[in-house]
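Allow me, if you will, to draw on your knowledge of protein folds for a short while. The matter concerns a single protein, recorded as an amino acid sequence and a row of backbone structure tokens. Could you please explain, in whatever detail you think fit, how the structure tokens follow from the sequence? I remain grateful for any guidance, and I place the record below:

…
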Amino acid sequence: MSERRPVTRRTGRWIDHWDPEDPAFWEATGRRVATRNLIFSIAVEHLGFTVWLLWSAVVVLLPKAGFPFTVDQLFWLVAVPNLVGATLRLPYTFAVSAFGGRNWNVASALLLLVPVGLLARLVADPGTPYWMFLVAAATAGLGGGNFASSMANVSYFYPERSKGFALGVNAAGGNLGVAVVQFVVPLVAAASLANAGLVWIAPILVAAACAYLLMDNLAVVKADFGSQSRAFRRRHTWVMSFLYIGTFGSFIGYSAAFPLLVNATFPESGAAYSAFVGALVGSLARPVGGWLADRLGGARVTAWSFTAMAAGVLGVLAGLGRHSFPLFLGAFVLLFVASGMGNGSTYRMIPAIFATQAEREVDAGAARAGALLRAKREAAAAIGIASAVGAFGGFLIPRGFAVSLGRTGSIDVALYVFLAGYGVFLATNWWFYRRRVLLGRIPSLAHGRI
């Protein structure tokens, strides 16, 4: 029978004992504490995504505000934050181990004041040089790092059986920041473009204060870097990172580029301000993908997602060929929904894969408690690595569209490249996680939720 130990605390809101896999512990105190931390993690991560994609909403307003930037320059402004954000995700993941989840949530929230302040300052002067806009856009990448630290931290709070849903909800709450910023900025910028940055200062301060007062650090997250470094040597860490380029990279890349794409391909529609709909449906689809992965298997749901994304690209090409904005928009909505579901399912696969590896170590004679703890630590590190690698797709997609437009006058070439990419992702997922030969060779995978 499980020992019913309560949550034990020390100063600085550190929790020393945390065992969510113990049903008695989870029902008595674990669920309540985990839910509270999840709520405020979502708040900080939501604002991180808001700041990260801030320039996707601002760029369509710059020409009217007197900034004579080219289309290629505007695409750089939406791509650079994704490049920086992807790069920062790895150190942000390890910051949770170094400083504690609650402590890092406070710090990462306050860092968001830098990009919003710079934006408000630069747009006040139409004479501001382009290079300064690039610098300001680069600092928006600070918001992109929040996701990795938030997801790694939340993964420790929840038991394996409900981790997919918890990570999906956390990620969806963050992803919704993309839809919110693309909806809010055109409204507040009507009076002054500087409001596009100023409007977020108060929410950032409130989120930082709530994280400081109401979140917790887990002692178990103070993982040794030896355990975390092993994640770098795991083959599946890099396979899942590659797959995440196809799911999350698609979501964040399309989100960043969509307002500019509407302006470039259907300027007569005047529908760029409705671009938030894509990010909205993609964000809402993410926990659904995690929920389905918990029940049907992450690899199966991921395969469906890549297939649907390929169909979405074909629909976009058809919409462009017929110059039908409804078909173009509908196909992009499918792309957003499919990428959102794929985000949830791929993230669910990571802890399941590492848990399966731990079970194999136990079967080989390793101590169960030690193997499971190592698996959690490695999975948390792998989540951060995958989130970093996957986010580079958010840079490649806008730049792909920009190059295609610049050289051919259309985005068709970029779309055909993306279509081929989805074929590669689908084949990779099948080879490593859906193949009958592999599943037959590793029985625990066949019966798990990978």
Summary: Residues 12-447 form a domain with the Growth Hormone; Chain: A; fold (CATH 1.20.1250.20). The chain has a mean pLDDT of 88. The chain has 20 helices and three strands. The chain has one domain: 12-447.
